[in-house]
């Protein structure tokens, strides 16, 4: 009598174990309900390299999480930040060539951009956050291009439905 429990072929077992290891490697450290977050890139990828990248690693923790956001204006893309988050942004070292960031929802990349310093003489054609020099309002704005929108090329993905839904879900969306 033949048992239904036949020895598992070694190749099949190898495929299953490899698949399980791959899935484990793709599991994020953060829970899937992280919501909106802005990360710096792992290994500090140059903004000029972003278009050529087929994989962008995220820093270990978000620079700005949903908890850091007081409000997000859907029309102007202005983000009012908590005191602590605003200090992190003002203390961020941003070279005149920019510093890359990644906007995510639940650890899925929605778009990339670059922090830019207002003292830079170099232009940038992507999505930007100009580093504030200080403000009582504690607001940053996700903009298009540097030094202005006329330098922007590409698609404006700041109003991605998943981004706005994530912010609305936690009561941070205005406008």
TrEMBL record:
This is Uncharacterized protein. It comes from Dehalogenimonas etheniformans.
């Amino acid at each position: 009598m033949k048992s239904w429990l036949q020895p598992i072929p070694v190749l099949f077992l190898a495929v299953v174990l490899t698949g399980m290891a791959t899935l484990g490697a793709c599991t994020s450290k953060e829970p899937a309900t992280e919501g909106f977050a802005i990360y710096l890139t792992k290994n500090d990828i140059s903004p000029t390299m972003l278009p050529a990248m087929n994989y962008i690693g995220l820093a270990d923790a978000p620079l700005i999480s949903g908890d850091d956001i007081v409000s997000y204006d859907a029309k102007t893309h202005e983000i009012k930040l908590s005191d602590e988050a605003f200090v992190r942004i003002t203390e961020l070292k941003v070279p005149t060539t920019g510093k890359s960031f990644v906007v995510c929802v639940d650890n899925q990349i929605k778009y990339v951009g670059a922090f830019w310093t207002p003292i830079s003489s170099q232009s940038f054609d992507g999505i930007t956050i100009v580093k504030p020099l200080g403000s009582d309002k504690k607001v940053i704005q996700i903009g298009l291009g540097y030094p202005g929108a006329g330098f922007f090329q590409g698609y404006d993905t700041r109003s991605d439905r998943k981004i706005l839904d994530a912010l609305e879900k936690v009561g941070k969306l205005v406008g």
